[in-house]
Write a structure and sequence with these properties.
alpha/beta; 8-stranded mixed β-sheet
Length: 573
């Protein structure tokens, strides 16, 4: 990917790496702004220079220090590691090593630092899904107090926390900010707009199913559309004559498999309770909490929903669609391997598509028009038979900067400077242009993205719409994300492989979740915020109560419903 506007000018910035702190001045900063940022910022050039001058001055006490930070490997973080980290080093004299590893590995490193107190990294970019963990264990510095106390002298006066769109995800029930968003993404529905709006295709679909082809509102319509396109000859609209599939997913037993389901697939099926904030008392992991936010169960017998009818339905449909309507190779793929497949031009729709995949999908290829506009669009994902108005409809997450208390103060201060640099208003428009993982309202509403919006298939419209706030991350019901998340892929993997039925796999999953909750409860490490398990009762007792968990529906495939994409976009605007 071409990150640099002027490689000659940037070379002057990177020369600071060899020279060290002596080049930690505004000459390096100006060279960086010339080479990399230019006018691609919401700040004027004068304000950019003022912000860079603040970094130069604030970093002076830390010049020569070597700092290590870590994130998962996505385009946004690759840009930070390869371009922004060397530039920050040249500008400030603080040597940054920004490691890129798998998402599961990030969680593992964080867990190890929490368990041992060893300072493995000076800062982490980890998902806001861990907010319940950070709030309960109190091993991460809460940034509200940090910015007013030990971090005050190194907190950018132009940081503008109110400009970040994801801080509600990283704020604990105590009102404290525990993480600062660095990149944000949603899962949405992806489809071939050119195929869906073709007259013959629309006519053939309506003749077969009796309603209009469009963005599916419910899973019944998604299933009908998947069936309709699988094996269809699309050569009459310039598509493939064979090898077309109506669904894309991945089925390999791997850590990424669990995210498919904890990242709101269960709630989109209809599992969990209604209302905001999400997950009270039962969330999309099926974990129930009491009025004090203490986890009290995961299995239906304790009031949880991890193994209720909606959860079983969610897994059952995933397996069915993977087997019937997806490329045969998908069953052996991980998230990373499956992500690029729609760009190959043979997939009609994908029910659960992550917006960070936009960046590689806008490159020239079978799913792009010659004028640089996409043949595809993104829209809200459909919901399942157990879903009703007020239940969570979609997942959104913010990979966020986290400072652990086990990191020495001076190292945390230096790392905090780098964290603020890579989310600063000076660089955010350019970084967002590379990774398309928006974190700032000002960037979303910038002239640059107004101009680029037609080439991004609805991404900008989604982030500018009121619908955006209805997409939320894992809530605070999950008391120990690192321990509990690994149970998901292992148990759901058993269902996808056929080793267990969906019901058997989810019975095992909720039981194992409760064992972890019981161990945390017994240890007392989370104090009054930790689990207090309910006594087991006849599951029917809880099914008969209002809300989640739920019993099995007689009809899990109601009439399919669709909506016109163009009408949907009008409602967003």
């Amino acid at each position: 990917m071409k990150y640099l506007l002027n490689r000659t000018a940037l070379t002057a910035v990177l020369a600071g790496l060899a020279a060290g702190p002596a080049l930690a001045d505004m000459e390096a900063a100006k060279a960086f702004l010339d080479a990399e940022i230019g006018e691609m910022s919401t700040l004027s050039r004068a304000d950019q220079e003022a912000e860079m001058q603040w970094f130069v001055d604030a970093a002076a006490p830390f010049a020569g220090m070597e700092i290590k930070v870590v994130s998962e490997t996505i385009a946004t973080h690759e840009y930070e590691s390869k371009v922004l980290a060397p530039a920050f080093t040249a500008i400030t004299g603080i040597k940054i090593t920004h490691d890129l590893i798998g998402e599961g590995d990030v969680v593992e490193k964080l867990q190890t630092q929490m368990q041992t107190g060893e300072n493995i990294y000076d800062a982490y970019i980890n998902d806001s899904d861990l907010i319940g963990t950070h709030w309960r264990y109190q091993q991460a510095r809460n940034l509200t107090d940090w910015m007013a106390g030990e971090g005050a002298s190194v907190t950018n006066p132009g940081l503008d926390v109110a400009d970040f769109i994801g801080t509600s995800f990283t704020t604990g029930p105590d009102g404290k900010l525990y993480q600062l968003p660095d990149q944000q993404f949603a899962n949405l529905y992806w489809f071939r707009y050119d195929w869906f709006t073709d007259a013959k295709t629309m006519e053939d679909f309506k003749a077969k199913y009796g309603y209009d082809l469009g963005v599916p509102v419910n899973w019944s319509a998604y299933e009908d559309i998947a069936e309709f396109f699988t094996g269809r000859d699309m050569s009459y609209v310039g598509g493939p004559s064979e090898g077309v599939f109506g669904n894309m997913d991945y089925g390999k037993k791997d850590v990424s498999q669990g995210w498919r389901y904890t990242d709101a697939w269960m709630s989109m099926a209809g599992m969990g309770d209604k209302g905001e904030p999400n997950g009270l008392p039962v969330d999309e992991w099926g974990i129930r909490v009491n009025e004090k936010s203490q986890p009290v169960g995961s299995c239906v017998a304790r009031g949880g929903a991890t193994n209720d009818a909606a959860a079983v339905y969610a897994i059952t449909k995933s397996i069915e669609w993977l087997q019937k309507f997806s490329p045969p190779a998908a069953m052996g793929m991980t998230f990373g391997e499956a992500g690029p497949v729609p760009a190959q031009g043979k997939i009609a729709q994908q029910r659960f598509w992550y917006t960070p995949l936009t960046a590689p999908l806008v490159k020239p290829g079978p799913v792009m028009n010659e004028d640089g506009t996409p043949k595809w669009r993104m829209a809200p994902s459909p919901h399942g038979a157990y879903w009703s108005e007020g239940t969570k409809i979609g997942y959104q997450d913010a990979g966020s900067w986290t400072l652990m208390k086990s990191t020495p103060v001076d190292r945390a201060q230096a790392a905090w400077l780098y964290a603020q640099f890579v989310v600063s208003k000076t660089v955010d428009v350019k970084k967002s242009d590379v990774g398309l993982t928006f974190i700032r309202e000002s960037t979303i509403n910038s002239d640059h993205f107004s101009e680029r919006a037609p080439r991004l298939g609805g991404l900008v419209e989604f982030y500018r719409s009121p619908a955006r706030v209805q997409w939320s991350p894992t809530g605070t019901n999950v008391p120990d994300y690192p321990k509990l998340s690994q149970l998901w892929w292992q148990n759901i993997g058993d269902a996808l492989s056929g080793e267990k039925t969906p019901q058997e796999a989810l019975d095992a999953l909720c039981s194992e979740q409760e064992k972890v909750l019981a161990r945390i409860e017994k240890s007392g490490v989370q104090g009054e915020l930790g689990p207090v398990l309910n006594e087991e009762q006849d599951p029917q007792y809880w099914i008969d109560q209002p809300g989640s968990p739920v019993g099995k529906l007689e009809n899990e495939k109601p009439q399919g419903e669709t909506v016109s994409y163009d009408e949907l976009i009008k409602s967003w605007n």
